[in-house]
Specification:
By secondary structure, this protein is an alpha/beta fold. The protein has a single domain, classed as Rossmann fold, CATH 3.40.50. 32% of the residues lie in helices and 22% in strands. The protein has a 7-stranded parallel sheet, sandwiched between helices.
Length: 143
């Protein structure tokens, strides 16, 4: 069964993206494939730029689209080749989320986003999924 994690960060969307990049970097080091599911092409480009320049001492191999390996950034409605880690930045929960070993949702300082994540949390809890809530909002690393 898919493990669901909600990460709360201080700051806005930029903080959530930076945490996602940190998690991606660690996951790639552990040979885990990651799919960033995002709402639109502008978001795809934003994540692409962040991952290219995220670390001066390491490289996060990635590309756009669900067929990218080991890290994909996609707005498409298909998981492609991915099944290990899904980072969901869309308002909706992808219908195929359960094929993943882990799904990560990010909560940042935006009232509309927070309400969407509450709905996602209720969805997963009601269906019996294991959920974790990790509050990093008081740590300086999220900024």
């Amino acid at each position: 069964m898919t493990k669901i994690s909600f990460y709360r960060v201080s700051g806005g969307l930029k903080s959530a993206i930076n945490l996602g990049a940190q998690i991606t970097e660690k996951s790639v080091g552990e040979k885990c494939k990651v799919l960033w599911q995002v709402p639109n092409e502008n978001f795809v480009n934003k994540i692409d730029q962040v991952l290219w320049g995220f670390s001066e001492t390491s490289f996060i191999p990635h590309s756009t689209g669900p067929l990218s390996d080991p890290v994909g950034i996609s707005k498409e409605s298909t998981p492609g080749i991915h099944y290990e880690m899904l980072m969901n930045f869309q308002e909706d929960i992808p219908v195929w989320f359960s094929r993943f070993e882990q799904l990560i949702e990010f909560i940042y300082e935006d009232p509309e986003d927070t309400e969407i994540k509450r709905e996602h949390f209720r969805f997963f809890k009601y269906r019996g999924y294991e959920t974790a809530y990790i509050d990093l909002s008081n740590e300086s690393g999220g900024k």
